[in-house]
Amino acid sequence: MELLKQKIVEQGVIVSDQVLKLDGLLNHQVDPQLTMQMGKEFAKRFGDQGVTRVITVESSGIAVAFATAYELGVPLVFARRKKTLLAEPDMLCERVPSFTKGIVTDILVSRDFLGENDRVLFIDDIIANGDAARGLIRIIARSGAELVGAGIVIEKCFQPGAQAIREQGIRLETLARIASLEGGRITFVD
Ligand code: 5GP
């Protein structure tokens, strides 16, 4: 998406060769017009898949996941993040490392909102090492739901997450692919 790439260049702040701060766009402020367009794009790409629920992980995936769910006319479920594992017997839970926070958190989804009759589309903001995606994919598998694919706004191609997910046979669509952050420049793949 050209508009997205333009906004990434305008608003992105390169923190290191590995990390791009996107608070103005995804992680602190939300651009509603752009977000709705991203939702439309994901809905177009996955519109023929019979999606019954969109799922994401709180918090930065929620806006674009909402836009996608709105376009598809289905509910949005967001996995909750918790720092400690208290007894949550009715919840599906996976422990994942957090790329930006440097800590491990549990992500939890209630069995009330995900089950074997669902065809699920996973939406998120950024993929780096793929830990968050893998955790959620494990939860979806355990629920008995079918994962139809994943739509992630930004793919950092120099980190292994996206490729690993595709190698599992999962359809992963991304809207902007970053090849490198080296030299203080954002270089896109295309
Ligand atoms: P992963 O689990 O794929 O390693 O990291 C995914 C999560 O970490 C994303 O949902 C995103 O919130 C955060 N993240 C990873 N890399 C970056 C980055 O370069 N910039 C920002 N702002 N967040 C990132």
From TrEMBL:
<dbReference type="GO" id="GO:0006166">
    <property type="term" value="P:purine ribonucleoside salvage"/>
</dbReference>
<dbReference type="InterPro" id="IPR050118">
    <property type="entry name" value="Pur/Pyrimidine_PRTase"/>
</dbReference>
<protein>
    <recommendedName>
        <fullName>Xanthine phosphoribosyltransferase</fullName>
        <ecNumber>2.4.2.22</ecNumber>
    </recommendedName>
</protein>
<comment type="subunit">
    <text>Homodimer.</text>
</comment>
<comment type="similarity">
    <text>Belongs to the purine/pyrimidine phosphoribosyltransferase family. Xpt subfamily.</text>
</comment>
<feature type="domain" description="Phosphoribosyltransferase">
    <location>
        <begin position="45"/>
        <end position="156"/>
    </location>
</feature>
<keyword id="KW-0328">Glycosyltransferase</keyword>
<dbReference type="InterPro" id="IPR000836">
    <property type="entry name" value="PRTase_dom"/>
</dbReference>
<comment type="pathway">
    <text>Purine metabolism; XMP biosynthesis via salvage pathway; XMP from xanthine: step 1/1.</text>
</comment>
<feature type="binding site">
    <location>
        <position position="20"/>
    </location>
    <ligand>
        <name>xanthine</name>
    </ligand>
</feature>
<dbReference type="GO" id="GO:0032265">
    <property type="term" value="P:XMP salvage"/>
</dbReference>
<keyword id="KW-0660">Purine salvage</keyword>
<dbReference type="GO" id="GO:0000310">
    <property type="term" value="F:xanthine phosphoribosyltransferase activity"/>
</dbReference>
<dbReference type="GO" id="GO:0046110">
    <property type="term" value="P:xanthine metabolic process"/>
</dbReference>
<dbReference type="Pfam" id="PF00156">
    <property type="entry name" value="Pribosyltran"/>
</dbReference>
<keyword id="KW-0808">Transferase</keyword>
<comment type="function">
    <text>Converts the preformed base xanthine, a product of nucleic acid breakdown, to xanthosine 5'-monophosphate (XMP), so it can be reused for RNA or DNA synthesis.</text>
</comment>
<feature type="binding site">
    <location>
        <position position="27"/>
    </location>
    <ligand>
        <name>xanthine</name>
    </ligand>
</feature>
<dbReference type="GO" id="GO:0005737">
    <property type="term" value="C:cytoplasm"/>
</dbReference>
<keyword id="KW-0963">Cytoplasm</keyword>
<feature type="binding site">
    <location>
        <position position="156"/>
    </location>
    <ligand>
        <name>xanthine</name>
    </ligand>
</feature>
<dbReference type="InterPro" id="IPR029057">
    <property type="entry name" value="PRTase-like"/>
</dbReference>
<feature type="binding site">
    <location>
        <begin position="128"/>
        <end position="132"/>
    </location>
    <ligand>
        <name>5-phospho-alpha-D-ribose 1-diphosphate</name>
    </ligand>
</feature>
<dbReference type="InterPro" id="IPR010079">
    <property type="entry name" value="Xanthine_PRibTrfase"/>
</dbReference>
